[in-house]
Amino acid sequence: MPATPPVEVIHLTIPSRLELLPLVDQLAAGISERMAFDEESRMQISISVLEAGTNAIQHGNRVDPAKLVEMAFSIHPDRLEVVVKDRGPGFDLDKIAFDITSPEHLLDLRGRGIYMMRSCMDQVDFTFDPDGTTCRLVKARPVASTNGSMSAA
Fold first, then answer.
1. Going by fewer Cβ within 10 Å, which terminus of the chain is more open, N or C?
2. Phi, psi (degrees; rounded to nearest 5) at 130
3. Buried b (16+ CB within 10 A) or exposed e, 25-60
4. pLDDT digit string (tens) for 62-100?
């Protein structure tokens, strides 16, 4: 029986400064390219990671550079998992889990981030604890088929 490849984890910790998000985006892009995600999936991963990072900096840590945002990119054989953790108190997910496509919310200036992450990723979870808020993003990794083409796991 072949051994399961080890999970590679890349950690990044940044101060809560929005101008550092391009660095996060470059890391996400490099990892998703290395994992052979197609162009659309790479874009979806970038959008989601940037949105999670922006939320952590703006809403969780209130743009306080003394508060850190911790990120972990876990490369599994079948998926990419990205965990973004801030030091904020969290939020009531039910209060923001409205349908942004409904007529009464079409012109809202805020509230689209979680919707976008959920539209782009295979799984989006939030955990709230006294140490902060954790957002976990999961995207299935493409796998090579027997004919050499790529398909989602």
1. N
2. -60, -25
3. bebbbebbeebebeeebbebbbbbbbbbbbbbbebb
4. 999 999 999 999 999 999 999 999 999 988 777 765 566
CB 80 within 8 A of CB 139: yes
Q: How far apart are CA 45 and CA 80, in angstroms?
A: 9
d(CA 108, CA 116) in angstroms, rounded, equals 14
SS3 151: strand
Q: CB–CB of 64/16 below 8 Å?
A: yes
pLDDT, averaged in runs of 10, over the chain (153 residues): 85 98 98 97 98 96 97 97 96 68 59 87 96 97 60 54
Task: Name which of 26, 115, 11 is nearest 68 in CA terms.
Answer: 11
Residue 84's nearest CA partner among 115, 63, 66, 61 is 61
Chain mean position to CA 78: 16
- As given in the structure block, the two tokens for residue 6 are 């080890």
